[in-house]
Amino acid sequence: AAIDSVLFNWSFNRTQPTVAIQQPQNSTYNSASRTLNFTAGPNTDSCWYSLNGGQNTTLPNCRNKSFMAAEGANTVIVYANDSLNGTAFDKVMFTVDTVLPALSVQQPQNTTYTSTNRTLNFTVSNADKCWYSLNNTVNVSIADAKILHLLRSKD
Fold it and tell me: How does residue 11 score in pLDDT terms, banded at 50, 70 and 90?
């Protein structure tokens, strides 16, 4: 009996898909309206994203998209899939801060004083840093945003 044999040589060169997010960046923004700008390839079949661990949102034709981020810390993850089920993702964390700081100066008041010693009394909210300048001189940092501070005029 004759034995027939068939020999197959397989060569497989597989390139996984890639994803790279260009926008948003790891930064703080003063607007919740953001653009998701990314590149995906090669041979990408489908793309989707997730914002802050929420549900996946399909990105038709793997195109960039605008979205609304939440106030505070945000994480966006973009995924890409190819026809062989290879999946890639990229992740970026960013912050949205749309609330402006509020400052109220109680002392000194906007008036003329006869003595040079004055107390700086103020309240501030939603501020990361605080400083003052007396008579347009160098800024002086204030470590505690709710502080009474003695100022001496250089007149």
Answer: low
131 vs 138: CA distance, rounded Å: 10
Q: How many residues does the chain have?
A: 155
Q: What is the reported pTM?
A: 0.69
Distance CA 45, CA 83 (A): 6
**Which amino acid belongs to residue 126?**
N
* Spatial separation of the C-alpha atoms in residues 44 and 25, rounded to whole Å: 23
Does residue 60 have a cis bond before it (omega within 30 degrees)?
Answer: no
The amino acid that residue 4 corresponds to is D
**Greatest CA separation for the chain:** 122
Q: Report the distance separating Cα 13 and Cα 104, nearest Å.
A: 66
DSSP code of residue 69? P
Give the DSSP letter string of 13-37: -----EEEEEES-SSEES-SEEEEE
Number of H helices, E strands in the chain: 0, 13
Handedness of CA 92, 98, 100, 101 (dihedral sign): negative
Pairwise CA distance, residues 155 & 112, whole Å: 13
pLDDT recorded at residue 66 = 97
Q: Is the pLDDT of residue 104 over 60?
A: yes
